[in-house]
Every structure is written in C-alpha cells, then in structure tokens.
TrEMBL record:
The keyword RNA-binding does not apply. It comes from the Bacteria. The chain crosses the membrane at residues 12-31, 43-65, 71-91, 98-119, 125-151. This is QueT transporter family protein. The keyword Hydrolase does not apply. Keywords: Membrane, Transmembrane, Transmembrane helix.
Length: 162
C-alpha cells in the first residue's frame, strides 16, 4: 500500500516538474492571446496514470504563478487544466482522439474569459476562443497524440504500478 502511494506521489511530482519546465522553456509562446503551451501536450498522461491529474494541476499552478500570471489566470487556468486532465482520465479507455478533447474544450471555454477580464484583452471572445483553440489543438491534439504513440511503446516500464 505504501509503495503505491509513493509511486503515485512521485509520478505526480515528476509530471508537475515537467509541466513547469516546458512552460518556461517555451515561455514566449506559452502566454498571451495567441498561445501554444507545449506543456499542455502532457494532458494526455492521465491515459497512462491517474497521478497525472493532480500532477498537471500543480504543474500548471506553479507555472502560472512563477510565470507572472495574474491571479484569475493562476486560478482559472489551472482549473482548466485540472478539468481537462480529469476528462482525459475519464475517457482513457476510449479512442485516443476522444481522450484529448477534454483539455482542448476546457481551455477553449475558460481561457478566453481569463484573457478578457484578467488581462483586458480587447479582442472578441469568439476570436480568443479560436486562437486558444488552435493552440490547444496543436499542443494537445497533435503533440499529445505523438506523445501517446511514443509512450505506448514503454507504457509498462514508465508507468508501472508498485
């Protein structure tokens, strides 16, 4: 029992750290009206381990705080990632193309309002939904599916249960 908890916490911490690192390495394109947050490709990890759900939430939270995001962005951006990761976990046994939809939809519905009301971006909400959606399709849809393909080969080694 103890080994399972340690494995869960270790996986969650590693995923959170990886999310933060990817957010900072790609910081110029991770924030703003037009963003492709490469770290969001990690939202496919709940397909492999439930530890990814809290790991992604904490990683997004830390990435937003240390990246200088406004408080509403820290809160609601992290919630969008949490909702997306939880949705991916719920759809983990379906078609992989369906499993990547929750983070895309969650960010399309939440982030444009954060951009408008936290940062005062004057662009229309539907346009912000489009730009955020394109970025999410690239990061979650395209890169996320590439990550799924690679990780499927090593699934039992990387995500073994204690």
């Amino acid at each position: 029992m103890r080994d399972k908890k340690v494995t869960f916490l270790t996986q969650a911490a590693m995923i959170a750290a990886l999310y933060v690192v990817l957010t900072f390495v790609f910081a110029p394109i991770s924030f703003g009206e037009v963003q492709i947050r490469i770290a969001e490709m990690l939202t496919v990890l709940p397909i492999f381990t439930p530890a990814a759900v809290p790991g992604l939430f904490v990683g997004c939270l830390i990435g937003n705080i240390t990246g200088g995001a406004m408080l509403p962005d820290v809160i609601f951006g992290s919630i969008a990632t949490l909702v997306g990761a939880a949705g991916t976990y719920c759809l983990r046994n379906t078609n992989r193309f369906f499993a990547v939809l929750p983070p895309i939809v969650a960010n399309i519905l939440i982030v444009p309002f954060v951009l408008r009301y936290a940062y005062g971006v004057a662009l229309p909400i539907p346009f912000l939904m489009l730009t955020v959606g394109i970025g999410e399709v690239v990061s979650c849809g395209v890169l996320g599916n590439c990550l799924i393909t690679v990780l499927n080969r090593y699934r039992t080694r990387i995500f073994s249960r204690a």
